[in-house]
Amino acid sequence: MTAPVLAEVENVSRYYGDLLAVREVSFSIRQGEILGFLGPNGAGKTTTMQILSGNLAPSGGRVRIAGHDLLAEPKPAKAALGYLPEQPPLYRDLTVDEYLDYCAALNRLPRIRRRDAREQAKAKCGLADVGRRLIGNLSKGYQQRVGIAQAIIHLPPLVILDEPTIGLDPIQIREIRSLVKELGRDHGVILSTHILPEVQAVCDRVQIIHKGSLVLADSIDGLARHLKSAALLVAFRRTPETAEIAALPGVRGVSPLPDGRLRVLHEPDRDPTDVIVSLAAERGWGLHEISPERASLEQVFVELVTEERPAEAVA
Ligand SMILES: Nc1ncnc2c1ncn2[C@@H]1O[C@H](COP(=O)(O)OP(=O)(O)OP(=O)(O)O)[C@@H](O)[C@H]1O
Questions:
Q1: Where are the domains of the chain?
Q2: What's this model's pTM, rounded to 2 decimal places?
Q3: pLDDT for 110-163, tens place per residue?
Q4: Which CATH fold topology does 1-80+156-225+297-315 show?
Q5: Which of 19, 37, 59 to mutate to test the pocket of ligand 1 (most atoms within 8 A of CB)?
Q6: Does the CB atom of residue 100 touch ligand 1 within 6 A?
Q7: Tens of pLDDT, residues 39-59
Q8: Which of 6, 173, 211, 219 has minimal CB crowding within 10 Å?
């Protein structure tokens, strides 16, 4: 059975004055998915997250959360989502328990359920031992856990996290990422980030936003496959002069690698594999490896966001 759709975003745009910060963005997320919303600084991630969470009105388009239109039926729509903004709304002078009680009340949980909700959220976020500590005295990593706990205290099906690991040290980053992954078991999660390995480590799907437009929507594996590499890795038993390979049609350059292989850069639509294979047989080069080089996710990201793409290119 297909999991229910938790959020549907249709052609959402947002202007700030004359600046079109988000341009006709559409996507959806189902229960059990962790969707990475990836983009460089200023791409429009926070604006999109604020719109999705009902904190900012779109200039155009529509958002439905758990089947409820966010503008027409804000109460049930907002009850179905939890939101961790880029700047978590923490009160430094409250204890963790006091703050989470307050958040439970804000989310209109019946008084009788608040204590259980607080304890469950603390348990999920690794906060069981710090309920009586002042938030201001906690480490940044623990403060972020409190931020996540407030987002899930009312058990929303959808959780939206805007840059949850920003400003954390490497150990805290690892802990928060594994917490996000755990959240993905019970909730649909939208994770906004500018860090590609974060998406790789945590998400099932990715959407790349650049200058307000989605430039790619794919699975994590699909993202890696998305850009065909325009280079071959070639190994011979008797390596020819690089000039011989460099002279082949479509070849842009040849560079020897430290492990003895050659990296043959070629024009994307002129793969010289067949020519190299037959020449190697003819000239006795002893070809024993020839394979396309796989672009790393970093390369894919850089290529996608540094080239201008028409809107139709969005998957
Ligand atoms: N309140 C605002 N008024 C005017 N322009 C804004 C406002 N908020 C954001 N912008 C602009 O809109 C664009 C998108 O910003 P947004 O914060 O959504 O991007 P982002 O991808 O979240 O980046 P970052 O990670 O740096 O926050 C940027 O050019 C930004 O300067």
A1: 1-80+156-225+297-315, 91-144, 228-294
A2: 0.79
A3: 999 999 999 999 999 999 999 999 999 999 999 999 999 999 999 999 999 999
A4: Rossmann fold (3.40.50)
A5: 19
A6: no
A7: 888 889 999 999 999 999 999
A8: 219
Q: What is the amino acid identity at position 172?
A: Q
The closest residue, in CA terms, to atom 18 on ligand 1 is 44
